[in-house]
Amino acid sequence: MVDEHQLCPEYRTDNSEGLKGSLDMNYREIGCVKFSVVMAIHNEADMLPLSLPTVYNLRPSEVILIFDNCTDNSEEVAKKIITKYDPLNQITRCINDPPKEIEHKFRIAYLKRLGMDLAKYNFVLVSDADTILDPKIHDLMNQITQFPFMSFERVDFPVNWRTLIKNGLNFLPLWTDDQVSGIYAVDLKVRAECEDPKKVKSIEQGEDTLMHQCIKAKYPTKFFHVNNIHLRPKEDSARHYRRGTYYWKTAKRGFIKTILSSVISCRYTLIKGYIHARFGGQ
Length: 282
Hints:
disordered N terminus, Spore Coat Polysaccharide Biosynthesis Protein SpsA, Chain A
């Protein structure tokens, strides 16, 4: 049985008063959960030098990298980073051959759950290869025992006017009830209890939203405003259309909120996708 609690690696007991650490820790003993990190990777050679080191900087107990049919040198780039941060290959596990044919409509939902199923530890942080992680997440992971699903904000870079508007809206009541980002942590035992595998296979987008909804129905969840950086924000009308369909099919987002999101961000194909999904039977 894996012990999921340990003393933080950077603090060591050296006197009767507790642990000697940074001043803001007040020399107190810190209990840290052990957790795995799962990252799915597809042709991310340019992004990995920026994102993968921040995974190791969180001091996880396990890192699971899933290379999904990469045609670039993502694996070679990752190996160089692993050699630097995990030279004895003690915590890193690489999956190089996920099946091409799967039952899931949304491949990323399958890949992330594949990583969760392989995880050694019960607490898992799911990240993306195009995101720089805020080191604060390490300490926030301790709250996973209170909130079995936690999502962590990420900000688009380069920053644009849409980002500024989005950040302003995040604090309004209409937007605070269902905040989810692609970076999240989950208690796998709770996930197994709450999530319907059949629904996961049927969704076309929003796998994190579905998980959040399932867990939120029984347990408290939490959204943290941190400084994760999303390196590849996309302005793609087809993508926004798919997001509109997901707003209804998976998130069941209200009509008014969807209209406001679309108009404020000037992403009008989002409305089209939402209307087709909700009223057109798409």
